[in-house]
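Example (one chain per record):
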Amino acid sequence: MKRQIFIYLFIFSTLIILFQYVNSKRLFEIQNKKIDNFETRIETYQDSLASLQDEVLNVSHFNLERNEEAITYFENKGYDVNTLIPFIKDEIYKLNEVSGEHPLIPYAASSGRKMMINTVKLLNHKWIIADFSDGEFWGELFLTYEITENKELKFNVVESFLYPNY
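Predicted structure:
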């Protein structure tokens, strides 16, 4: 009798061990598939990230904040670039508040509207690109600027164009 109990216990233990082995193997395979999927995703994301970093580098190439020579130019003249860049942009945006026609935009606005500068990008220590609109018509400006000895900003419109309204 004792022997039969041990045989039954042995068979039962063997079945439990076999069940655990099969179940663990199945779970291990599922986990490996998940890991493979995650590794594939990581590769895809890393490729996307590298592509986006290249794109950001290309877009920011003509940018005063990343142009060491232009920054050095201002620093040699005693300006703090971190405060100068917002100051220049603010001075351009302040021109939107001038009554009448905008002093930098050489195009008249449609009736009842006013041309205003929307976006300003400082390319270097001498050039600015800006876009403008009155809500119906829009265009872009290429400006030069300089800071006089009296610490005043002078803007000069070099080129401008108005997009056709289709």
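Caption: The helical segments are 2-59, 68-76, 81-94.
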